[in-house]
Design goal:
The chain contains eight helices and six strands, in the order ααβαβββαβαβααα. The protein is of the alpha+beta class and 239 residues long. Strands 1-6-5-4-3-2 form a six-stranded antiparallel beta sheet, with helices on both faces. It starts with 7 loop residues before the first helix and ends with a helix.
Length: 239
């Protein structure tokens, strides 16, 4: 999969950063990863909170650095008799303490809302602050359920060669039956610190749920004030 030029009006008029809408490839994203990347998506059989809920032990090659489907991680059929609280506890416990991987849980309605808004407006940007400066990340949602995030400078230089530094997977398999949506953030580039990656993920989710800025960026890019957006993000970065 690659960053797709699905919303031509979303980026090409964001003149402050001279963004053009071209595909960014993720097909080679594993080439620069260490072997530890496999440990993020293939695990031992382990059990958490319930004796019959197991995470899947599976070996296969992915061009996408995070899990594509919930069934890549969990035996979904074993969750059918569990409550959403039990499922949430299992998900969070499983990801607890894992390096460069984070689990997030939200209710079914909110998760479906997130996916719907992302499908409408697939592009956005996020600043990362270090010292007295910052650098920019560009994100794109790809249906049915994941975001790819890449360095904006890499994207501007060559969208086809820009590689994701972080992915966010949104699994809504249990949204209707259990009123729970499970999210996973995979930080796949060592240049991004764990806390930075988690903040990026949280900010991305928050911005899509609030939606005003995301909608403006995609639908009315000339009205989107990048400088004001960065200023607001900086004020909240260390909260």
């Amino acid at each position: 999969n690659s960053f797709r030029p699905a919303a031509k009006e979303a980026l090409h008029r964001s003149r402050a950063y001279n963004i053009t809408t071209k595909p960014i490839s993720s097909s080679r994203c594993l080439c620069t990863l260490t072997s530890s990347s496999h440990t993020m998506i293939k695990h031992e059989h382990k059990r958490y909170n319930s004796p019959d809920i197991q995470f899947v032990q599976k070996r296969s090659n992915f061009s996408f650095a995070g899990p594509r489907k919930l069934s890549d991680l969990m035996k979904v059929d074993l969750l059918q008799d569990k409550s959403n609280t039990e499922i949430s506890d299992v998900w969070m416990t499983y990801h607890e303490g894992k390096e460069k991987v984070h689990g997030i849980v939200m209710d079914g309605k909110k998760g479906r809302n997130l996916l719907g808004k992302a499908a409408q407006c697939p592009f956005f940007i996020q600043p990362v602050f270090r010292g007295e400066g910052h650098f920019m990340i560009v994100s794109q949602f790809q249906t049915p359920n994941y975001f790819l995030l890449a360095l904006l400078e890499d994207y501007k230089m060559d969208p086809a060669a820009a590689q994701p530094i972080l992915t966010v997977s949104v699994f809504d398999d249990l949204a209707e039956t259990k009123d729970v949506v499970l999210l996973r953030c995979d930080i796949i580039n060592r240049g991004i610190e764990d806390d930075e990656g988690y903040k990026l993920c949280q900010n991305l989710i928050k911005d899509y749920l609030e939606f005003e800025g995301v909608h403006m960026f995609n639908k009315k890019p000339d009205a989107f004030d990048v400088d004001e957006f960065v200023k607001e993000k900086e004020q909240k970065w260390n909260e």
